[in-house]
Amino acid sequence: MTDPTTDVLTRDVVIVGAGAAGLTAANELRKAGLSVAVLEARDRVGGRLHTDVIDGAMLEVGGQWVSPDQEALIETLEDLGLETYSRYREGDSVYINADGELTRFTGEIFPVPEATEKVIVELIERLDRMVAEIDPDRPWEHPDAEELDRISFERWLADQTDDVEARDNIALFIAGAMLTKPPHAFSTLQALLMAASAGSFSHLVDADFILDKRVVGGLQQVPLLLAERLGADVFLDQPVRRIEWTGGGVTVASDRMTVRARFVILALAPVLYPRISFSPPLPRLQHQMHQHISMGFVIKVHAVYDRPFWREQGLSATAFSPYELCHEAYDNTNHGDERGTLVGFVSDRLADDVFCLSAEERKGRILESLSHYYGPDAKNPVVYYESDWGTEEWTRGAYAASFDLGGLARYGADQREPVGPIHFACSDMAGLGYQHVDGAIRMGRLVATRIVEEARG
Predict the structure, then answer these.
(1) How far apart are CA 18 and CA 13, in angstroms?
(2) Is the whole-model pTM more than 0.90?
């Protein structure tokens, strides 16, 4: 990686964004013999992957888990020589119902009344059948796509059952845990895409599947090692301000450098495209499309303790409740660490609410919620940190972008289509691996293949 330069560089391809998608694309293009330059606005590579040491504790500030279906990520980890380890899951999970009652349990289905459990199982089976009909790369081609995209997931659930606890629990897996938006804010088609991207709705319900492994030393090593392979072709602290384009190429300008190239890849979340001035402007279709895409919002809470005390109680630390401030939490203890780490999540409207409080009040509320799962020891971490991607200038939300009602069926087929020499690649527009680093890698590979074919054509 090099320091900024005022020189005008010439490359075959310039990549905007040094996350997993952009760096994967850059490496694939280099392998094909094309020259590249990667411009990154931040002072680090990784995008929404960030492993940091805070108060002496290594924390996965951004994405961190690896599931068995994430073949592109697993291949990349093997290629980079990175090791994984299983998330701790020995012992009981805990669930808190609407009355605040805690129940220990094992398995995937929460300990709810028998009638509610029956409804939950029926809904999971129904959603699995619907998901099986969805191509995650082309959900808009489903024969009922427009109808499903007009109905919010909240409304769809209400049409299926009047069992509120069953609806709340099913919604939790999509709204709180994945899209981080309230279920009235996204469509049933968007929910089905989220599940299809993981293989089934059942996979989203199974924490032991979707949150299977972690990377020894942190997942940000993926972009860090990919960037190392590119060396001096990665430029940090270079927010791109302007892209001038014609059918014959592009000129990409940051505050302190300019790159002329045949192609440009926008490897950043689509909510950030408006930060760039295009000349000529992007076509009307793109302008409209990008106004129908928005980020979710979640606070990722890290609490480190002198020991993993919950294990002494026979708990795995896996915890769920649609009725708690922290709607889910897990054992996030680092590989080989004697200390214990919990990670919890506060999503959408609840995250809005606690950010109206002072930092100390917010910390108190969140730790109080964790104590409802694990007891009073949870209130006394030795390290406490909140990942707030909503205030991060070059992200502006978490975990990723999704369409509003009607947007996926209306615009989904166009989101990956290049505009002249401008190509698009990020996890937000992936099929398999949607919203995950696996999807970012898949998109980086896909766009690199397209450019190589076009360059040679």
Answers:
(1) 14
(2) yes
Query: What are the φ and ψ backbone dihedral angles of 384, each rounded to 5 degrees?
Result: -135, 135
Nearest to 415 by CA among 246, 175, 258, 193: 193
Per residue of the chain (457 residues), what is the pLDDT tens digit?
444 456 799 999 999 999 999 999 999 999 999 999 999 999 999 999 999 999 999 999 999 999 999 999 999 999 999 999 999 999 999 999 999 999 999 988 999 999 999 999 999 999 999 999 999 999 999 999 999 999 999 999 999 999 999 999 999 999 999 999 999 999 999 999 999 999 999 999 999 999 999 999 999 999 999 999 999 999 999 999 999 999 889 999 999 999 999 999 999 999 999 999 999 999 999 999 999 999 999 999 999 999 999 999 999 999 999 999 999 999 999 999 999 999 999 999 999 999 999 999 999 999 999 999 999 999 999 999 999 999 999 999 999 999 999 999 999 999 999 999 999 999 999 999 999 999 999 999 999 999 999 999 7
Query: What tokens does 270 get?
Result: 């689509």
DSSP secondary structure string for all residues of 377-442: GGG--SEEEEEEGGG-TTT-SSS-EEE-TTHHHHHGGGTT--BTTEEE--GGG-STTTTSHHHHHH
Give the position of tokens 């002329």.
Answer: 260
Q: Beta-carbon neighbour count of residue 123 at 10 Å?
A: 19
d(CA 317, CA 374): 8
Q: Which one-letter amino acid corresponds to residue 87?
A: R
| Domains located in the chain, CATH noted | 8-48+220-282+419-456 (3.50.50.60), 51-65+297-391 (3.90.660.10), 92-209 (1.10.405.10)
22 burial via Cβ count (<10 Å: 0-12, 13-18, 19+): buried
